[in-house]
């Protein structure tokens, strides 16, 4: 028996490269304490507060649970992605990785997969927590399909905004703006339904991607399939991904 020690310098298959990059991205994000607070602790605190004190505030668990699921999509796809990418860009990590066989498309695909895995994990954990606290959604097949479609489009829109920020601003500015947008977006459709606003303000909230996502998930949990959020989400997704494509630079 002879052993073949001849070198094979070819790159790994594209699927393996993207998966390896996504795994590293996800592990780095999960090990970040600040991101753990945004990812689990704040949404869980909202759920617990809604379960025990929500009726007094007019925001019970049936409304708060789908709103919290919208919140984790908002935080992961905007804040987490923007901050991590901004500092990677500052220290020329993106430029160095782009020079490997992974390439720029592989970097973006890996980031998308990593954020998707983290968001899915958050949705599962917080969904189970909401069920344990007494949430009883009335999903239908149609409402689930519409909610998932809206969620994917809104996640694309949030990611586009996050990449536009991280690819054009200094990381310190990205950190500040992303956290500010996170706080501003929470009441604008994510946690508060549009019906809680005056008519003129409700129309503005419904036209935002945060409003579209929140309304779609809340409606889906009651068995309703709203179609207008898909249109709003699709328009924002196309616009913000185009913006990211135009303004994103790989080096600071």
List the helices and strands and how they pair.
Elements: H1 14-30, H2 33-57, H3 61-90, H4 93-98, H5 103-133, H6 141-166, H7 171-190, H8 199-206, H9 209-221, H10 228-247
Written description of the protein model:
This protein is mostly helical and 252 residues long. The protein has one domain (14-247). Helices cover 78% and strands 0% of the residues. The protein has 10 helices and no strands. It has helices at 14-30, 33-57, 61-90, 93-98, 103-133, 141-166, 171-190, 199-206, 209-221, 228-247. The longest helix has 31 residues, at 103-133. It is globular and about 70 Å long. The N and C termini lie far apart (54 Å). The mean pLDDT is 90.
Q: Output the structural class.
A: mainly alpha
Low-confidence region ranges: none
Question: Could you tell me the number of beta strands?
Answer: 0
Q: How many helical stretches?
A: 10
Q: Summarize the amount of helix as a percent range.
A: over 70%
- SSE succession: HHHHHHHHHH
Q: Major sheet: size, sense and barrel closure?
A: none
Termini separation comes to 54 Å
**Cα shape:** globular
Estimate what percentage of residues fall within beta strands.
Answer: under 5%
How many structural units, i.e. domains?
1
């Amino acid at each position: 028996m002879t052993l073949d020690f001849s070198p094979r310098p070819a790159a790994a298959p594209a699927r393996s490269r993207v998966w390896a990059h996504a795994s590293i991205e996800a592990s780095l994000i999960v090990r970040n304490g600040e991101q753990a607070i945004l990812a689990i602790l704040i949404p869980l605190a909202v759920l617990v507060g809604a379960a025990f004190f929500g009726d007094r505030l007019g925001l019970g668990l049936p409304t708060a649970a789908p709103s919290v699921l919208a919140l984790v999509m908002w935080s992961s796809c905007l804040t987490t992605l923007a901050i991590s990418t901004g500092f990677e860009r500052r220290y020329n990590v993106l430029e160095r990785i782009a020079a490997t066989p992974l390439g720029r498309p592989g970097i973006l695909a890996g980031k998308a997969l990593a954020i998707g895995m983290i968001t899915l994990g958050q949705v599962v954990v917080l969904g189970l927590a909401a069920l344990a606290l007494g949430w009883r959604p009335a999903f239908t097949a149609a409402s689930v399909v519409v909610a998932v479609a809206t969620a994917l489009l809104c996640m694309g829109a949030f990611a586009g905004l996050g990449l536009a920020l991280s690819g054009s601003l200094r990381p310190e500015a990205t950190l500040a703006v992303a956290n500010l947008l996170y706080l501003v977006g929470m009441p604008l459709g994510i946690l508060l339904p549009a019906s809680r606003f005056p008519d003129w303000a409700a129309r503005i909230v419904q036209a935002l991607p945060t409003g579209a996502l929140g309304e779609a998930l809340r409606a889906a949990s009651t068995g309703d399939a709203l179609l207008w959020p898909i249109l709003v989400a699709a328009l924002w997704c196309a616009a913000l991904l185009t913006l990211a494509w135009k303004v994103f630079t790989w080096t600071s």
